[in-house]
């Protein structure tokens, strides 16, 4: 059994709460690692926090300005020579394109080399991917990794919302998605969801009215109603109609959810859309940033038995789609001025070179700076940004 397979087996058979000790022991035995640390990104993606293991005190590493943060943002492994006859290797921990954190491994090297062998680098990188997938499975049975993501306490509403999400990023050969909610520790009404098949991607952006736990419960019902309808195999217009009925039955039109529903054909780039409220879609194509508007229909749950119809548009390889809630484009500064279309277009343009997963944080930082609230993405109202980079599919292949 090779070193890599031995470590993989140790991780696959470890208890859910015991991934880090298992990784530490296996990497020490098979690769000579002298130190192993698992750092997970917090909900606001400002810091990386170490997973508690009972041996050392948990610590925080800022994402901005640190080699660990550079590896996290770039999704590329980083080698740092900082110790005599040892090298620190920072490897992104991901799962299907969702950046979870960093696996930090200190490996011995010969004094004359000061580098880790390429094969070892590749194997440690693959091990970090296994760690990422095992974390997602382990979270079903333990709170260890969820606790490591908290730089402060979540509100109950935020707890509900974060557990509704499919993740914060997703990468496929046809597209990449990155998304973020703010304020991360007190979000309540905004949400996003996605699901793919071999030929389609379904995407929903939701914005429940109200505040606090009531808004979170409203959005939770809407998201689960949409999922229930989607899993029945029906189109997005009927998905919207069934979710609308579920919400109206519960709230009788007194509360409702603004929703943007999209279904992408992965072969052709054809997109069907149901626009039921306030979330906006912006497109960055070539050097042009523009707001894509659709015929507005009723938010989900406002009236009984609303009929929804789809509209069409098309994406082409190279398109970047940005989805934002009203907490972004309608945000008010201390002077009473909205962030608005001009500032939003400028923020989208400024993030043009970033990967999809990093775009939401960049736009939210621009929003925060505009609102005179400091450097980090801390906003007063719910703010959602989702970025989708479209690569398309060559049907001939």
From TrEMBL:
Its EC number is 3.1.3.16. Transmembrane segments: none annotated. SUPFAM superfamilies: PP2C-like. Gene3D superfamilies: PPM-type phosphatase domain. SMART domains: PP2C_SIG. It holds the Pfam family SpoIIE. It is an enzyme of class 3 (hydrolase). Keywords: Hydrolase. InterPro entries: Bact_Sigma-Reg, PPM-type-like_dom_sf, PPM-type_phosphatase-like_dom. One of its GO terms (molecular function) is protein serine/threonine phosphatase activity. It comes from the Bacteria. Residues 172-390 form the PPM-type phosphatase domain. This is PP2C family protein-serine/threonine phosphatase. It comes from Streptomyces tabacisoli.
């Amino acid at each position: 059994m090779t070193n890599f397979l031995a470590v993989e087996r140790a991780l696959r058979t470890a208890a859910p709460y015991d991934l880090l000790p298992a990784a530490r022991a296996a990497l020490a035995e098979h690769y000579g690692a002298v130190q192993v640390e698992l750092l997970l990104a917090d909900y606001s993606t400002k810091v990386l926090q170490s997973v508690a293991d009972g041996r050392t005190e948990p610590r925080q590493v800022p994402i901005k300005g640190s080699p660990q943060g550079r590896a996290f943002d770039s999704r590329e492994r980083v080698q740092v020579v900082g110790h005599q006859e040892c090298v620190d290797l920072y490897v992104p921990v991901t799962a299907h394109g969702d950046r979870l954190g960093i696996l930090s491994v200190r490996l011995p090297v010969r004094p004359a080399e000061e580098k880790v062998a390429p094969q070892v680098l590749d194997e440690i990188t693959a091990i970090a991917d296994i760690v990422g997938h095992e974390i997602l499975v382990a979270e079903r049975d333990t709170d260890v990794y969820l606790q490591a993501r908290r730089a402060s306490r979540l509100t109950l509403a935020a707890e509900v919302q974060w557990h509704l999400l499919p993740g914060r990023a997703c990468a496929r050969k046809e597209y990449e998605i990155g998304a973020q909610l703010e304020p991360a520790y007190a979000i309540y009404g905004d949400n996003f969801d996605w699901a793919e098949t071999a030929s389609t991607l379904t995407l929903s952006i939701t914005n429940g009215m109200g505040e606090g736990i009531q808004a979170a419960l409203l959005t939770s019902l809407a998201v689960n109603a949409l999922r229930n309808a989607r899993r029945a195999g029906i189109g997005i217009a009927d998905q919207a109609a069934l979710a609308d009925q579920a919400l109206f039955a519960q709230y009788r039109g007194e509360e409702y959810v603004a929703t943007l529903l999209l279904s992408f054909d992965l072969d052709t780039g054809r997109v069907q859309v149901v626009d039921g409220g306030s979330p906006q879609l912006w497109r960055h194509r070539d050097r042009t940033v523009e707001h894509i508007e659709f015929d507005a229909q009723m938010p989900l749950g406002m009236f009984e038995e609303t009929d929804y119809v789809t509209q069409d548009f098309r994406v082409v390889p190279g398109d970047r789609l940005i989805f934002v809630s009203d907490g972004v484009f309608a945000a008010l500064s201390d002077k009473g001025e909205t962030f608005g279309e001009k500032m939003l277009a400028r923020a989208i343009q400024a993030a043009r070179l970033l990967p999809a997963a990093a775009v939401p944080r960049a736009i939210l930082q621009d929003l925060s700076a505009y609102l005179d609230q400091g450097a980090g993405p801390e906003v007063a109202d719910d703010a959602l940004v989702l970025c989708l980079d479209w690569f398309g599919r060559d049907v001939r292949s």
